Amino acid sequence: MSEKSRPNLLYIHSDQHSPYVTGCYGDPLVKTPHLDALAARGVVLENTYCPSPVCGPSRMSMLSGRYPYENRVWTNTHMLESSIPTFAHSMGAGGYRPILIGRMHAVGPDQLHGYAERLVGDHGPNQPGGTGVNLGVLAGTAGPHRVSLEASGQGQSAYQVHDEDVCSATVDFLNQLGEKKRNGGDEPFSLSVGFMLPHQPFVARKEDYEYYYDRMTPPKINEAFGDHLHPHIKYWREICEIKEVSEEETRRSRAAYWALVHRMDIMIGEILSALKENGLDKNTLIVYTSDHGEQVGEHGLWWKQTFYEHSVKVPAILSWPGHLPEGTRCDNVISALDLNATMLDALDCPALPHSRGRSLLPLLRSPETTDWEDVAISEFCQNLSGGTGPFPAEGVFQRMIRRDNWKLNYYHEQPCQLFDLAADPDELNDLAADPAHQDILEKLKCEILEDWDPEWVKEELAARRSDADIINSWVQHVQPQDSCRWELKEEMSWLDDQ
């Protein structure tokens, strides 16, 4: 393949975007015209699952193509080893110069993981134990805590300011590429763009917030708190203080979330316009996805950290003029790791040798002739010092498999959950205790445990915690300089009524 015929890549990766809050996925309220237009020019994947319903582990898996246990990255404080090749390494090996603008959420001294250059960093410290961020009046709202519902509404989140910088840097970068092209340069590019939105704080600016507050609907799947809940879900709602959430808190938080999705779509539109205006859209594969979803009150839950569909499913839209069909939808079960393999295949870069991902190109081009296995796996493991939420001292060791219409959620030393998503898409009827479904339950449970040992994970998490104590202490005393960090300032965040 000649340099002139090699495709470009524009990979846009958001944070905590539920596919259910996107126009092209059927939401009649949210305004996402640019993602909807992208979907009309490409393929919408209906059933894409993240490798972990928490930020860092999911993103590191989507870089490496490996499951969290293979990366040994289960929490937001775990470092991905630099010896593990990523899809950015593979793009470099394939002749591209991969560029990242914005969010990656990597922890440790390696803030590139194969990217040749990073123009905007993350808002948090590079090193675990480094100097954290100050969200001012929104302190605590970025985590799974009740305060994120209490301190919600109209105002500004620093995360939106971060993404506006990311958007500006991306448009500027594309303008520079356009100028080079007009001057005779035609080197193919590989550009990744990482957004923070629509991750909470559930706070949005007046111009966006008011529209959705006036029109906001309540959650569709109401799940009252009680002893009928799965033991882990009951514990989670208790410890996070979301046994009951007021109608006003729900309305404010949901309105802000819809508004943040709307604002992110506007920024994506600016990027796509710059791509087109600079004549770079003709041979560019555009991929949009997110690291996990957001529950926004469905099942009485908020944030992510569970295997319910609103948490573990992600949007995935692919557009590549002349190479992928336009205006189509794919309802096969897909892992987000498959997007990694697909981008490498499209760019004719070497496949990652230990990746679990499968290229989607044959399936999307010829679905009737492709033997695709409808399966995806997600993993969620934390210990008391996991860094992402209030977990029990004995830890959390959970894994999910979606195979065909079945979903099994495995909770170590607790009952499983089993759902038939064809008959029960809202996951209201847990079949795990039904005698008529024990065969499928045991089959899926064996598949989950075939290559994954929760006791080994428990030992590894304990060992990593001991190692982290030394690293954290070193960081606090030595104060190593951050090599790539976006400066988040306290005054960037506020609520209008304060």
Strand content: 15-25%
Structural class: alpha/beta
- Domain count: the total is 1
Percent helix range? 25-40%
CATH topology: Alkaline Phosphatase, subunit A
General shape: globular
Number of helices: 14
Terminal CA distance reads 59 Å
Q: Name the helix and strand elements from N-terminus to C-terminus, one letter apiece.
A: EHEHHHEEHEHEEHHHEHEEEHHEEEEHHE
CATH superfamily: Alkaline Phosphatase, subunit A
Write down the overall mean pLDDT. Answer: 95
Q: What gyration radius follows from the Cα positions, in whole Å?
A: 22 Å
Q: Class in CATH?
A: Alpha Beta
Task: Give the name of the CATH architecture.
Answer: 3-Layer(aba) Sandwich
Please give the number of β-strands.
Answer: 16
Major sheet summary line: 9 strands, mixed
Which segments are poorly predicted (pLDDT under 50) over 5 or more consecutive residues? Answer: none
Descriptive key words:
single chain; Alkaline Phosphatase, subunit A; nine-stranded mixed sheet; 498 residues; four-stranded antiparallel sheet; 16 strands; alpha/beta
Overall description:
By secondary structure, the protein is α/β, with parallel strands linked by helices. The protein has one domain (8-371): Alkaline Phosphatase, subunit A (3-Layer(aba) Sandwich), CATH 3.40.720.10. It has 14 helices and 16 strands. The chain has helices at residues 33-40, 55-64, 68-71, 87-93, 147-150, 158-182, 206-215, 231-239, 247-277, 309-312, 336-346, 361-365, 438-450, 454-478, and strands spanning 8-15, 43-49, 99-102, 117-118, 153-156, 190-198, 203-204, 284-290, 313-314, 316-319, 328-335, 375-382, 396-403, 406-411, 417-420, 494-495. The strands form 3 sheets. Strands 1, 2, 3, 4, 6, 8, 9, 10 and 11 form a 9-stranded mixed β-sheet that branches. A 4-stranded antiparallel β-sheet has the order 12-13-14-15. Strands 7-5-16 form a 3-stranded mixed β-sheet. A hairpin with a 5-residue loop joins strand 14 and strand 15. Helix 2 (55-64) runs parallel beside helix 11. The longest helix has 31 residues, at 247-277. The radius of gyration is 22 Å and the shape is globular. The mean pLDDT is 95.
